């Protein structure tokens, strides 16, 4: 019975839809990506291409790793390099029609999961917070 | 019945104990803290004082915000400033004797929760991943 409820909840009901998701573009310089991440406060955000298809994920860690030289932080690399060169390419995805249980499986090892349609267009993100809130609801009801 | 199981699981069983937790000291320069965060890959870690009591939490965002000047990233501030000056002071905590449900409530808005004893000594951290894995176990059994 508990199980039945969880598979009835679609990702679409829980996700943050694309217009509310901070993101960067493939060809942005790292400097812009780092600014977006610092201003938004997020540790990582999706990377989209010009047609709004999902291309990858970029994180503060990966940008900082790039500029961490042997002697100092090589700040000049931030304007020389592009998001596309260092982002994570293999991104786990799910669809709006998947359910909470599918999402739970994917979210064990990831802060958030990108939601895409069959053509790869970016629909939004499913966050750990959304899943935890729903599970807490189920537990207390 | 489901509820009973969750309140039976102590934080002690789920947490990452202190010796496995990456952390920094109150008086470390920001440069050291940023290196620990970049090398470990974590977005934020606990801050301890010299006697291993919990003092706060430091994140990449807060360090990067400090050095983000109007014109450029002010890298020199990294060696001039200390963790203590910019860390989050008001940190939510729980104890080893609390249970999973207490942890679930606290973890909705936080990536991890610090576990301390009555004197404030740092015992470990309870992560979202640990809670999600346990909830998944409960659901599938
Ligand atoms: N501005 C803010 N206001 C209130 N709470 C905040 C916040 N920024 C972060 N948090 C809290 O910290 C958690 C971890 O955020 P983080 O940036 O590491 O990791 C985030 C971030 O990488 C991404 N994310 C969340 N919302 C996003 C958005 N609107 N746009 C882009 N990425 C987002 O999904 C991850 C998991 O998010 P989740 O909500 O589960 O968990 C968030 C949330 O509980
Ligand atoms: N080196 C690594 N190996 C494998 N997976 C990794 C990893 N680094 C990060 N992850 C994955 O990314 C999630 C978010 O990590 P984040 O660093 O933002 O946020 C982390 C970090 O701030 C802190 N944390 C976790 N383990 C820690 C440790 N051993 N020492 C210090 N802080 C830790 O707790 C937060 C939540 O961790 P959680 O495990 O729930 O969730 C982790 C985990 O699923």
What's the SSE blueprint?
The structure is a homodimer of 141-residue chains.
Chain A: H1 2-8, H2 11-14, E1 16-17, E2 24-25, H3 30-40, E3 44-48, E4 54-59, H4 60-67, H5 77-80, H6 83-86, E5 93-94, H7 100-107, E6 112-116, E7 122-127, H8 128-140
Parallel strand pairs in A: 2-3, 5-6
Antiparallel strand pairs in A: 1-7, 3-4, 6-7
The structure holds the ligand Nc1ncnc2c1ncn2[C@@H]1O[C@@H]2COP(=O)(O)O[C@H]3[C@@H](O)[C@H](n4cnc5c(N)ncnc54)O[C@@H]3COP(=O)(O)O[C@H]2[C@H]1O (2 copies).
Structure description:
The structure is a homodimer of 141-residue chains. With 141 residues, chain A is of the alpha/beta class. The first copy, chain A, contains 8 helices and 7 strands, in the order ααββαββαααβαββα. The first copy, chain A, has a 4-stranded mixed sheet. Chain A is elongated and about 55 Å long. The mean pLDDT of chain A is 93. Chains A and B meet through helix 1, helix 3, helix 4, helix 7 and helix 8 of A and helix 1, helix 3, helix 4, helix 7 and helix 8 of B. Bound molecules: the ligand Nc1ncnc2c1ncn2[C@@H]1O[C@@H]2COP(=O)(O)O[C@H]3[C@@H](O)[C@H](n4cnc5c(N)ncnc54)O[C@@H]3COP(=O)(O)O[C@H]2[C@H]1O (2 copies). One copy of the ligand Nc1ncnc2c1ncn2[C@@H]1O[C@@H]2COP(=O)(O)O[C@H]3[C@@H](O)[C@H](n4cnc5c(N)ncnc54)O[C@@H]3COP(=O)(O)O[C@H]2[C@H]1O sits between chains B (16, 20-22, 41-45, 111-112, 125, 127-129) and A (43, 109, 111).
């Amino acid at each position: 019975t508990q199980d039945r409820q969880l598979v009835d909840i679609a990702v679409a009901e829980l996700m943050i839809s694309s217009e509310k998701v901070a993101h960067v573009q493939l060809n942005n310089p790292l400097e812009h990506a780092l600014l977006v991440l610092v201003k938004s406060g997020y540790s990582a955000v999706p990377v989209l291409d010009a047609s709004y298809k999902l291309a990858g994920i970029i994180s503060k860690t990966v940008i900082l790793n790039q500029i961490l030289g042997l002697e100092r932080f090589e700040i000049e690399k931030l304007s020389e390099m592009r998001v596309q060169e260092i982002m994570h390419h293999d991104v786990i995805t799910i669809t709006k029609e998947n359910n909470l249980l599918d999402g739970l499986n994917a979210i064990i090892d990831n802060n958030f999961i990108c939601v895409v349609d069959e053509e790869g267009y970016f629909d939004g993100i499913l966050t750990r917070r959304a899943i935890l809130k729903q599970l807490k609801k189920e537990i207390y009801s």
